[in-house]
Amino acid sequence: MQWDYIIVGAGSAGCVLAKRLADANKKVLLLEAGGSDFYHWVHIPMGYLYCIGNPRTDWMFKTEADAGLNGRSLIYPRGKLLGGCSSINGMLYLRGQAADYDGWRQTGLTGWGWDDVLPYFMKSEDYVDGPSDLHGAGGEWRVDNQRLHWDVLDDWMEAAAQEGLPKTTDFNRGNNEGVGYFRVNQRRGWRMNTAKAFLRTRSGQALKVETHAHTRRVLLEGGRCVGVEYEQNGQVHTARAGEVILSAGAIGSPQILQLSGIGPGALLQKHGIAVQHEMAGIGANLQDHLQLRCAWKLQGAKTLNTMANSLFGKAMIGMDYVFRRRGPMSMAPSQLGAFAKSRPELETPDLEFHVQPLTLEAFGQPLHDFPAMTASVCNLRPESRGVVEITSPDPKAKPRIAPNYLSTEGDRKVAADSIRLSRRIMAQSAMAKYAPEEMKPGPVGDTDAELARAAGDIGTTIFHPSGTVRMGADDAAPLDGQLRMRGIGGLRVVDCSVMPSITSGNTNSPTIMIAEKASDMILASAR
User: Fold this and answer.
1) What is the pLDDT of residue 204?
2) Nearest CA to 469 among 272, 245, 275?
3) Residue of 135, 277, 354, 464 marked catalytic
4) 197: which of 16, 50, 207, 344 is 20 to 30 A away, CA to CA?
5) Residue 354 designated active-site
């Protein structure tokens, strides 16, 4: 069958594209290398704990040992199922800042400024407080209030206000400076992923969804992409289309392109892949938000540590969710947030806090058995750039992921200032009743060098890789402003890999926005 469009990847972007194109009566084949999202831990919000690190739902990637992290390697979760990362992520609804998108436009990407993209955020939005000049209602992508409360987080919010951050109820108005509770992509205490929101609400009938369909390469003829080759149930298939759209994410999309002979020539030749189209930028420009997990032991505080470390507490947590869809099982990984400036002269915030009433040694390990809290802080605009590269011509071999965290003096300075700000907030009078004792980074000095090294010890990914197939007005950018591959017809990339610079916040909803805008571009081209 000749398809109008083949979409590779049924994640945050792919599900949106599939619905919009199918609803426009286009014949669409959607290929997902993972499986179904019919798994209870996908839909229970706290189930991310059982989805990350689970080969059923996670690609189980790891980074290279990183000098900036003092030689450590990190797990690098990516969704391996319908809904992609929206099925395993932290569910936080954040758009980034107006300055992010205006910055894209200022580089020559016409149509990508804040005023241009805001309608696409609103298009699919179903905002809990109803429609306004900045928010939409009635769309597929539900934005809800969280369904639990912690006094210790209220006190941290007050401490942040004492440090000078304004309190806010909405981080999505263009300038997100302030402290407040995150809004989440949930509905009545259940996770909202893009498979539920978009795939299962389509009206178009001309959509075929194939799971466990691992794309091996795109097919090129005469300088044009004409289809894909994919493996399913041990058999290799080909499918042809008028246009192919890669939506496999910041790791998967550059990997597929490189396997197809599109990418840095020396890398492809090293692995015996014929160079079809040399493009040095494929897999370069990897950006991520490195979070520094600052943590404090507290006295007399009610936190998840104490609740979840007894059979009675666990039973109460379970009952609260079963009967009311509330409590810790409805929790996003972070409940309270703050956006702040590492230096007062900055025009917009460059730091984001994720504040949690819990502590643990590392993701997946047990909670500590004493009251404690974590105030993770990340640099929203990192200077460091990494790379994604294939390691073999085998499509199922894991790629090399090297983020190169803290590889610039500027990033190390921001990391040091981030820890200092965390300490100042915890030292405010609003937190004094808890007698906070710093656990991480712990008793290290206050010089830039000491704090930067400490940041390398406590830093971890917040799961926001982006930028590896960037769009740009310059010829070195793999994509143009319409997300079309330069030098190859019939091929686009639509996912977080297209970001020229990472947005100032969590990246899931910006990826959905990109797909909404791309669907209009694609349909306009077809006309």
Assistant:
1) 67
2) 245
3) 464
4) 50
5) no
